[in-house]
Specification:
The chain has 20 helices and 11 strands. The protein is mainly alpha-helical. The protein starts with a strand and ends in an 18-residue tail after the last helix.
């Protein structure tokens, strides 16, 4: 692991003007005067970095990345705020006119065209070590595969092109997803594996283990499809075995250490999208996950908004099902990824002891009219699943601070995922964050290998992979109690384990669609979505812009209204 990070500056994207705006806008912006720069060593390196930059629009910074993967699942539903609840509700307003759909589609195709441009122009590079060119092209092919993988997971059959767009185009194809896997995604990742080094001096560049990890996930995803190759699951297992065994990755000793903002370059991270506290380098973006999972603490007694506790946008709240998944007596992961205590930071709103409190025996007459607590003391407490019974009205009354139990949860009050809280922001209103976004980590590698082994009916080894993850998650002394047996392993257990380990990490929608469990589990566990979700919701609607701006139109995915009828 190297300590030098690569940060991709949004403003250096040399080929953005020649992106897949061909589908979306007729007014292209091309800096053709800079074409000669692209063939210089510095221009080539900038062009490669610019391909990475498109990751930042979906992995961490904007709301669309989280919305498209967290909402509408079995483990998160909507909070009070935000205009994108239709992604959770699956109602008639979730249609091709959704702006987040357009942005996801647009950004990934821009990234693809950026990659195509780098690859197509690389033959003109002079004055650069051919081995370095080959390595950088392998990075770009990895990224192109990654962008296409996201597209086919969301939309199925989509436009496939491996050539740079250099002018206005109004034609587009719908290539079958099977062909995109076999002719683009898998060959690009195989190329990356063959050419990338095990590690890079610039932390954040893709590596051979990152490519092996991604190809394993791609093959596992395809293994569920009718067009799968018979050895997809076996290849996925072998690739993840290489990731686990060959590169020195190690699980952090404590699950909570994953969310230590001072420990982001650690032995568990296989690949992450980089951010920084330098506002210029972040290009005004940065990881905004700190905004979305927090309850409305800032208007409560003794509290006001601050950087330590976050800016609560109240987008995603955990479903009762998610909160039921941890046995907190033996499993540390709920306690180490949800926030429980808020300490008072506002003296002006601290409540005082009243005569009623004295009458109830909660305090003595000597305290009448005095603050119930001081700045720095507990102001709010959420005991969380399995702990509410400890908080009787009398105990809460004597404590003096507010305690929120399950009967009080609603769209504004709920247990708050704390994985992405970012106290290093410059002020309490600041939206961009400096956390890296971890796309691939070792615990996920074990769980993906377990799933690949289950697909081959090897529940014994699948259980051992799961137990590696569970033993790390155990409270000290509870490791044996956390272990499962081969008889416990089925796809539902694996999905439950992935929820316990990876909640909020932009995995869930993909997990449920991959395993064919989206509709079943949403109907079981997401009260706001269960009445509307239909079988066709395993694919997203094609964006209206794509349909309208393609000559002859562009076929909509089944179940959704055609253009003009949304």
């Amino acid at each position: 692991m190297k300590n030098k990070s690569i940060i991709w500056i949004i403003t250096i994207m040399a080929f953005v003007g020649q992106s897949c705006e061909k589908f979306l806008e007729e007014d292209l912006v091309s800096d053709v005067s800079a074409a000669s720069y692209y063939t210089t060593p510095a221009g080539f390196e900038d062009a490669v970095d610019a391909t990475y930059a498109w990751l930042k629009y979906s992995y961490g910074p904007p709301e669309r990345g989280f919305t498209s993967t967290v909402f509408g699942t079995d483990i998160f539903t909507n909070g009070a705020d935000g205009s994108h609840k239709v992604w959770n509700w699956y109602d008639n307003n979730f249609n091709s006119g959704q702006d987040l759909l357009r942005e996801l589609w647009r950004d990934w195709y821009k990234g693809i065209n950026q990659a195509n441009a780098v690859i197509n122009r690389s033959t003109q590079i002079e004055g650069l070590d051919p081995a370095l060119i080959e390595q950088r092209l392998a990075e770009v092919r990895f990224l192109r595969a990654f962008f296409y993988f996201n597209l086919v997971q969301h939309w199925g059959d989509v436009h496939l092109t491996l050539e740079e767009t250099e002018g206005i185009e109004i034609e587009a194809n719908r290539t079958p997803a099977a062909e995109i896997y076999s002719t683009a995604i898998i060959p690009d990742l195989e190329n990356a594996i063959s050419l990338l080094p095990a590690e890079q001096n610039d932390y954040g560049r893709v590596t051979k283990p990152a490519a092996e990890f991604m190809l394993a996930k791609v093959l596992l995803t395809r293994s569920y499809k009718p067009y799968a190759d018979s050895n997809d699951a076996a290849r996925a297992e072998a690739l993840m075995t290489s990731v686990i065994d060959n590169y020195g990755f190690e699980l952090l000793e404590t699950y909570g250490d994953l969310w230590d903002q001072d420990n982001q370059l650690n032995t568990e991270v296989i690949w992450s999208v980089q951010n920084t506290q330098d506002l210029i380098l972040n290009g005004g973006e940065g990881n905004r996950g700190h905004l979305y999972f927090l309850f409305e603490y800032d208007i409560r007694p003794g509290m006001q908004r601050d950087t330590e506790n976050g800016r609560p946008w109240k987008r995603f709240r955990p479903t009762p099902f998610l909160l039921s998944l941890w046995n907190r007596d033996i499993d540390s992961r709920y306690d180490q990824s949800f926030k429980h205590v808020w300490y008072s930071n506002n003296a002006t709103s601290i409540p005082i002891w009243t005569q009623e409190d004295v009458n109830n025996g909660y305090t003595t007459a000597a305290n009448l009219g005095q603050p119930k607590f001081e700045v720095g003391d507990t102001a709010l407490f959420i005991p969380g699943p399995g702990r509410d019974a400890l908080w009787t009205a009398e105990r809460e009354g004597r404590a003096g601070y507010n305690v929120y139990t399950v009967n009080e949860y609603d769209e504004r009050v709920f247990p708050s995922l704390s994985k992405f809280i970012d106290p290093l922001r410059p002020d309490r209103q600041w939206e961009p964050g400096s956390r890296d976004f971890v796309v691939a980590r070792l615990a996920d590698a074990y769980l993906i290998r377990a799933e690949a082994r289950l697909m081959q009916n090897n529940t014994t080894d699948a259980a051992e992979d799961i137990n590696v993850v569970r033993r790390r998650a155990a409270w000290p002394g509870e490791e044996d109690a956390m272990e499962i047996s081969a008889a416990d392993v089925d796809i539902d257990f694996i999905l439950d384990e992935r929820a316990r380990e990876l909640a909020g990490e932009m995995q869930r929608w993909f997990d449920l669609v991959r395993t064919g469990k989206l509709v079943e589990r949403v109907r079981l566990y997401n009260a706001e979505a269960r009445d509307n979700i239909q079988d066709y919701h395993v694919l997203r609607p094609i964006p209206l812009d794509q349909i309208d701006r393609t000559q002859g139109g562009y076929e909509q995915n089944p179940g959704y209204p055609v253009a003009g009828d949304d």
